[in-house]
Amino acid sequence: MSDYNLVQFRKDLEQLPVILNQEQEEKFILYYELLVQWNEVMNLTAITEFNEVLKKHFIDSLSLIRAVPELEEKKLSLIDVGTGAGFPGIPLKIAYPGLKVTLLDSLNKRIKFLNEVIDKLGLEDIEAVHGRAEDYAKPSLFREKYDICVSRAVANLSTLSEYCLPFVRVGGQFISYKSEKIEEEAAAAEKAIHILGGDVKDKKDFYLPDSDIYRILYVIEKKSVTPKKYPRKAGLPAKEPIVK
Ligand SMILES: C[S@@+](CC[C@H](N)C(=O)[O-])C[C@H]1O[C@@H](n2cnc3c(N)ncnc32)[C@H](O)[C@@H]1O
C-alpha cells in the first residue's frame, strides 16, 4: 500500500477505464486536501492517508463505470443517498462532469463541507441537500426523477431499496456499493426490491487494485412505478425493513 501513489492511481484508473485530464486530477487533490482539513474538526472519514484515500475512496467510487458504462453519456441525472463526505457522488462528478448530481445526507455539517467542496472545486450542475431519504423521496421534485441512484455504506439492501428506488425513474437504475459478499442480505431484500418496482439486473464484483479488498456492485433496474406508500415514514425502513 505504501508504494501506491499518483502514478499508480492513473494506471488503476486506466484499467477501469477512467481517463482524467490535469484539471480533473487537480480537483481530486484539492478534494483530498479539503477532506483532511475539515476532518480535523468534524468526523468525515477514518481514512486520511493520501494513498489510501486514492484507492479506498476515489477508485472505489469510480468503479461504478464497471457496472454502468453509460455514465459517460452527457446529462444523466444521479442522486447519491447518504453521501457523507461525498462518496461516491463527488468523484463521479469530477470524472464525469456531464452528470447532473444531487448529494443527499441527513447530517447538515456534512452538507456544509460538501458545499465548500463544490465551491472550491468550481463544480457545476451539482447540489448538496440536507434531509432524510424517506422525506426527500416524497416530493414530486425528487420522486422518480433520476436516471441513476447510488449509495455506499448506508444500510442493508432492503432498507436501502426503500430509500433509493423511489428516486429512480422507470427504466433507470439503483446501484448499491457493497463491500462484502451479501448473499443473505440480498436474498432478504428480494421482496422489497420487487414491491418497490425494481429487479436485480446485474452484480459486478472485483477487488480494489493490488489488494484483497472485495467489492460488489448490485445493479437494480427500475421496472415499474414505486407504490405511493413507499418510502414509509422516516426511521421505519431501517427499523422494520421489508423482508420475506
Ligand atoms: C457510513 S456513512 C457513508 C458515507 C458515504 N456514502 C461513504 O461511503 O463514505 C452513512 C451516511 O448516510 C447518512 N444517512 C444515514 N441514513 C440516512 C437517511 N435515511 N437519509 C439520508 N442520509 C442518511 C449518514 O448521515 C451518513 O453520512
UniProtKB/TrEMBL annotation:
Tree of life domain: Bacteria
Q: Does the keyword Magnesium apply?
A: no
Q: What is its main location?
A: cytoplasm
Residues engaged in binding S-adenosyl-L-methionine: 82, 87, 133-134, 152
Key words of the record: Cytoplasm, Methyltransferase, rRNA processing, S-adenosyl-L-methionine, Transferase
Q: What does this protein do?
A: Specifically methylates the N7 position of a guanine in 16S rRNA.
Q: What is this protein called?
A: Ribosomal RNA small subunit methyltransferase G
Q: Which organism is it from?
A: Eisenbergiella tayi
